[in-house]
Amino acid sequence: MARSLKKVENSGMTPFIFFKDRLATFKNYEYDDDQTATCTSKTLARAGFVWTGGISAICPFCLKELEFDPDDDPWEEHKKRGNDCDFVHLEKLEDSKLTLSDCIKLSQSGIVMAQFKKQNVIIEQLEQKMTVTNISATVSEVLKGPKKQSTSKSRRSRKKNP
What domain of life does the UniProt record list for this protein's source (predicted)? Predict the structure, then answer.
């Protein structure tokens, strides 16, 4: 059992439920060197965010992506914009306060959002590939309706009665 759990953890399929996992996404975060900054990799990770590069971070539980300034309070910014976020609703910034039920809820939310994000990428790729001609041909095919299939018996009767 422990071996399969390790495989799942290493697969990148697990959402960022715990602070240490979110913090691990931040590499050389720009504001970490600023002694006066309130927005650091630690405050961002504690507020539920993972790093997307530069000064941006995203919440894996609601997919809110924000660009931060050094004097921003990540938790306050997340609360302002995350009224539909399961992480914000829990209001538990410390891992030690999370219950098993909380972890399950965050895990489900993270998985759903990850799938949602993947589906959106697929849709965007399809939209880019479609041209006016393709759309027109697709609409024409749909408007024609499904092709009617005939049985071998009906084909024989049509041949006899032209």
Answer: Eukaryota
